[in-house]
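User: I'm preparing a small set of examples for a lab meeting where we compare how different chains pack in three dimensions. I only have the primary sequence for this one, and I'd like the structure in token form so I can line it up with the others. Please keep the answer compact; I'll paste it straight into my notes.
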Amino acid sequence: MSSVEAQTLVPIPGDSLPLIAGAGGRGLRRVWLRLLVFVLPIVLVLAPIVYWVDPFALFPKDSAIPIELRSHYAGPINQDLWKIFAFNRKPAPNIVLGDSQVARLSEEDISSVTGMQYSNLGAGGATLRETISVFWFASRKAQLRHVYFGVNFMGYNADPRDRVPQAEGILKDPVVYCLNSDVLEAGVYDIGEFAFHHHTDLGPQVNREAFWQSQLQYLAARYKRDADPGTLRDKLREVVQYSHEHGIAFTFIIPPEHVDARQRVRQLGVEAQYQQFKDDLAGMAPVLDCDVDSPLTEDKDSFSDPFHLTDSAANRLVSDLWSGHSTYCRSLGSR
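Assistant: Understood. Below is the structure token output for the 335-residue chain.
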């Protein structure tokens, strides 16, 4: 047999592994087999535990661990994963999108005020890119009617992070769920508290005033970055255009921040960029701008830090925003 013939691939019936010519191909197949032998026992051990705990409520079943406990740890670790799985189980025609600022607005309160079913898909750590991805995910799962898209100045950039593909990958292949690092971390905390009464504190480990000041200092580094969203501006326009074409009432929300945070815009010399951010949004769709002087943004007790409302203040904002005649927020653009 010639050397060329020796390298010819011969399909083997039922063989699902990649066929690669020659000795190199056989070596690669052995690597795959060894990897499978190594990973399979891990999956077989972890899968029943993850299924039993179900840290992010993926499966349509009851868990031995209460939903309140699981959400307590799932939120800080990967709130986006939690929210997407919940929406996949129960899609709603009306949604709120954004990061942790918007996530504070209770969907139950919004539904109560409006008389319509709302789902809040806002998630801690969500970037503009990710929020756009969440919109498209929701549009594939439900016939949307109202969309409130939350975006703030420090999040109006081209940050590449996007956890939506990860979540959609798990929905397509739940085996991946058993090996996801966020799922495993949350599962450890769930079991630790449920079975061994060991509480893990994922919050800031400093007092409120120290944390408040550290967050204000953080803005100096944040605003030095390129604040231009680049091509994401066009992606955002596509979201608005799609909404108009499909009869979806689309509104931007600029969440409220304490006046201390807004003063940093002037102190750090980014007033022009800040105004451009608002002008960009107003040029695309109606805007409810809540980052303005108001009794809410001037009240330090209404904030847990310069960017996030307390639960009670968030409840007041929901009532104000969806009342139809807001006193905390200013309307920009055409409504």
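A couple of notes for your slides: The longest strand covers residues 249-254. Strands lie at 94-97, 118-120, 146-150, 249-254, 287-289, 303-305, 308-309, 330-332.

User: Perfect, thanks.
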